[in-house]
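Anyone opening a protein record will find just a pair of labelled lines. A complete record is shown below as an example.
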Amino acid sequence: MGDRRIPLAAAICAALNPAYSAIAQPAPETNKLEPVIVTATRRAIDLQNVAQSVTALSSEDIAKQAFQSLDDVAGALPSVTLVNAIPGRNDVIMRGISTGTGEYYTDSQVAVYLDDQPMTSSSQQVDVRLIDIERIEVLPGPQGTLFGSSSQSGTIRYVTNKPDFGGYSSQVDAEIGTTRGGEESYDVSGHVNIPVSDTLAIRAVGFYAKEGGYVDNVLGDNLRVDPANAVTNADVVEDDWNDYEASGGRLAARWQMSPDWESSLSLVSQDSKTTGDWLTDPAIGDYKIVSFFDEQRDDEWYQASANVKGDLGFAELSMTASYFDRDIFYEWDNSLYENWRTAYYGVYNGLGLYDTAYAGGTTFNDQKQNRWAYEVRLTSQGESRLQWMAGAFYEDVYDWWHYGAEVPGLTSTLAWTTAQSYAYYYAYDSLYPLADTDIYYSNRFEKSVRQKALFGELTFDLTEDWSVTGGTRWFEFDRQEVESFEVPEGMPVFDQTPDGDFVLARPTVSEGKDDDVVFKFATQYRFDDDRMIYALYSEGFRLGGTNSPRAARAGVVPLEYEPDTLENYEVGLKSQWLEDRLQVNVSAFFMKWSNIQLSGDPAEDDPWWLRGYFNGGNAEQKGIEVDTKWRATDRLSLEFGGFVADPEFSESFFDPDGDPIEEGWPMPDSPKEKLWAAAEYRVPGFLIRDGEFWTRLSYSYQGEFWNSLTAIRCVNHGTYADSSVACLDPDDEADGQDQLVPSWSTATLQFGVSSNNGWDAALIVRNLFDDNSEGYRSSSDYGEFFGDSRFRYRGSPQRPRSVSLSFTKRW
C-alpha cells in the first residue's frame, strides 16, 4: 500500500506529552514540494511548466490516500464526475460536459489510456486496479490534437511502473477490513522487479481483491395488477448480496538494445466480477432492495503492447503497437419493466405481443471489443528555441454485442402465441413455426471503426520568458454498423415501407466516412522560475453516425447525425511560493459545445426499438479550477482542490418528437461544485523509533445534479412524450427532488506507522461519517403505475463506514 500519512492524533499526542518532540528526528534539509514530471503532452516535462490544466497523482499519492479504484480517484479530482451504478460500469464526465449516461452508441467524450495505448469505451470505461501505478494523469478539457476524437472533453492516463535495470526490488501489500452492516473485504497484491542483466529487466505484478456486500435483497412480491397472485423473490433473498471481486496482473520486459535504442513489451490482464445489486430502494430502507433474480456482471480484459524508442540525435523516435481485448457479460433483473410493459401495452392497450403474463425476467448483454492501435512519433531534442513533435496514428476498433431480455416460460404466454401467428401471417414458411426460446427481445449490434490521423505541435520561445505553442490533428474515420432487432428471438420486428406497408425488417447496415481537423493554440509567460501564466484555446471532436432507417422513417430521429464539437478557452496561473513550499494553480475556462448529439426516444405509441441520435443546439460551460498544496512545516502538509462551474444549454431547440430543451436549463450529471481537501501530519520517532507515526484526513464533496435530461424537462416543462417516465409536478418542489441526485461527501481517516526498514502499517477508516448519499439514481418509476411506493428512483449509495488494517513490506 506504500507510505500513507494523515494529521490529527499525532498533534494531540505531542501536545499531551512534550517528550514526543524530543524523540523526533531532525527536520529534513529541505521542506520544498517535490517536482512532478508528467508525459501528458507526449514529452517529459514538469507539471508546473505545462500550459494547460493537468492533475497528476503519483504512486505515493495513490498509496497514502488508500486509493484502490477509479471511484476513489474521482473523489480527489474536482473536475471529474463519475457516474456508476455498479463497480466497473463507469461513465466518466469531465468539466460537466454531459447529456446523460448510458449512451452506448455514440463515441465516448473522455479518452482512457494505459501508458500510450487507448482503451476507451463509451459508458463502460475500464476501471484499472491501482496496483504498481507510477502516475495517473488527468487532462480536463479537449485534448483532440494529441489524443483524438474520444478526448472531446478530457483524457485520463494510467502510467505503469516500468522494469528497472538498477536493481532487484519487490513489494507485498495486504489489507483486511469490515463494513458496517456488511461483509469483510480482502486485498492482496505485490510486484517484483528483476534485473536479468545490465540491459534486460523484467517486472511482474499480481493482485486479488474481494469487497464484501452491504445491500440486502429482502423478501417482497413483484408488481402486479392482480396482487392475489403475486410472485415473491424468496428463492434469491440474501443479506449482503452485492459482492465484488477483482484479480489480474502485469508482466513487462525492458531491453536496452544499445546506448541509443530500447524496447519494451507488456501484457496486462484484469478480471472483475460482481454479484447482486448496488441499488437501494428508499421505500424499503437503507441498503435494502427487492430483486427477483441473481444478478451478475463479468468484465474481463487484457492488453498487449510493444514499444521501441530510439535516439536519433535531433529527435527521439517512438513506435508503439498495442492490442486490447475485452469481454463483458451481465444479467440483471428486469421484472419491473417486464411487468410494466405487460400491464401498459399488453393488458391496458390490448397488444398481445407485449403480454408476457407478469412472468418477470432479466436483461442480458454479451459484449466484446477488440482494438488494434499503432502510433509513430518524433519528438525534437536539444536546447533550440523551436521544439516540435510530429506523429501518425492508426486504430482499428471492433465492437459487438448481443443485448436482450429473457422471460422464463415465454412460450406459455399470450406474447408467444401472438408472435407465432405473426410469423405465420407475414412470413409463412420462412419463419413459422418459431423455435422455442425464452428470449423475448434480442438486439444484435456490431460496429467497426478505422481511424487514421496525423498530428503535430510546435513550441517557439519568443523570448527567454515567453513562448507560444500551436498544434493540429487531421483524422479520418471509416465506420460500418450492422444492427438487428427481434421480438421474440427468431422473428424480426416490423418495418414500414415508404408505401405504408408493414414487412418484417432486415438487419440494417450503415456506413460512412468522417474527417476533420482540430487545432490548439497556447501561450505562456514566465515571470520567474516559480510563476507562470498561460492562455489556451483547444478543440474537441466526436464522431457522428447513422441511425436505423426504421427510426428515421418514423420521424423519431434523422437518418444520420453529425459530429459535435467543443471549443475550450482557458487562462491559468501556475505558481509556487514560500521557497517552493506552497503551490497555487488556478485555471478559468469557458467552453462552447456545438451541434450536441442527443438521444431520441420513441413517443408513447411508437415501439421502443425506434430510437437513435440527433443533433441539438448548443451548450456552454464556464468555471474555475483550483489546485493547491502547502508544506506548512516539516510535519504538516495541506492540500485543496476545487471546481465551480455553471453548465447550461445556451439556446432553445426541440427534439424530433417536439419536446423542448430550453435556454438556461442545466446539463444532466453535471454538478456545479466539487472540492477535495486533505491534511497530513507526521511525527518521527513516535511509536516507532526507527521510523515515523503519521495520520491523514481527506475529504471530498460534490454538489447535486439532475440524473437525466428527461428529469430536467419534466421539472421545467411538465410534459414528456414517453409514458413510461413519470413527469414531475413543476409546482411541487418536494416532488422534484425525486430525480435530483443530492450532494454527497465522504472522508477517509488513517493512522499509521512507516519504518525505515521497509514496512508500513495503517488503520484506515473510509466513509468516516457514514454518509449514505447516492452517486447515481435511476430515473425509472415503474411502481407509480401500480400505485406501489416501491421501485421508484432507486439509488446507488456509498459503501457504509468501513474499517481496515493494511500492511506493506518492501525489499
Notes: The chain has a mean pLDDT of 87.
